């Protein structure tokens, strides 16, 4: 959910305001997890 919201240009502040139980550390942990999952993956650009 965090990555989806960031992908549609919600800010961290927007997410925190919408979900008061979340903390900045939770969002940063989600980003770190996603980055670690993609390490070593090859990204191929597709024609638009």
List the helices and strands and how they pair.
Elements: H1 2-7, H2 12-18, H3 24-38
Give a description of the structure:
The chain has 48 residues and is an all-alpha fold. The protein has one domain (2-38). The protein has 3 helices and no strands. It is flat and about 35 Å long. The model has no long low-confidence stretch (mean pLDDT 92).
In whole angstroms, how far apart are the ends? 25 Å
Mean pLDDT value: 92
Query: Any idea what the shape is?
Result: flat
Number of domains: 1
Give keywords:
48 residues; mainly alpha; 3 helices
In short:
The protein is mostly helical and 48 residues long. Helices cover 58% and strands 0% of the residues. The chain has one domain (2-38).
């Amino acid at each position: 959910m965090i990555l989806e919201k960031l992908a549609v240009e919600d800010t961290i502040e927007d997410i925190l305001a919408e979900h008061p139980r979340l903390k900045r550390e939770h969002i940063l942990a989600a980003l770190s997890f996603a980055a670690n999952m993609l390490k070593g993956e090859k990204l191929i650009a597709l024609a638009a």
